């Protein structure tokens, strides 16, 4: 009933509305069982420093592979989890994976980041829970970063600011994710304790051909420098894009050109490689 088109994405065909609702219902039920049935995995995507020519960090990304439905992309199951409230368990699972992974990588000077949904961030016990797990693992300063999106900030800037300041005091870094796609943003930059801005992939997509995108990236880099923040370019897929981005002054890169998200067993072999291989992909994501 579902047909795979390309990597990880599905379209429905020949199904009436009723069937789709039924599918949605079964999907939601399956998602709630995904952690206990070991279907919800964490992959890690490298963040690469073009100056030192080293991998300096990883972003944890959730993956859901279900026997009946196949590979479901986060763009589908994260909103579902947010709607049903399952995001709380999902988020804690991903946090645990992140801390365990960072602990296993200790001493390599890496920063492992993970995404927090607005809903989680606003939950009363979230910060306390995060800090207690962080301490449980005994992680060193700057080994963990939390990625937040602009949309999570719109609701209550004051509340979020004080929460993030608590995290910062613990040595946890704050990344502003998907920068430029929300309702900008300059207020957030001056108010929040942000360590790094992640430039959204949509700006990188056309950076080679469009001057506007180039100018926007230049502006973000300049602004970040003034504010003492790092910049990470997200979604760099080609060597041309990499060149444009580094020429604009951004040397931290995350994208398929460096590597797709990989599973934990693929990480050490990758770190063992001394330099980025030209021609793109280090390792491919296994579905
Ligand atoms: P994000 O946090 O902006 O993550 C980056 C997304 O871009 C990831 O997609 C990653 O696989 C993809 N990506 C990275 N480099 C490239 C590239 O060169 N080309 C292309 N085409 N894509 C690239 P993914 O894993 O599908 O995640 C999508 C979104 O789902 C994430 O966007 C994040 O907002 C959300 N998400 C994923 N895992 C979690 C999680 O554990 N918790 C929460 N709350 N959200 C998550
Ligand atoms: Mg992210
Ligand atoms: Mg992002
Ligand atoms: Mg994104």
From TrEMBL:
GO terms for molecular function: cyclic-guanylate-specific phosphodiesterase activity. Residues 24-275 form the EAL domain. It comes from the Bacteria. Keywords: Membrane, Transmembrane, Transmembrane helix. The keyword ATP-binding does not apply. The keyword Membrane applies. This is EAL domain protein.
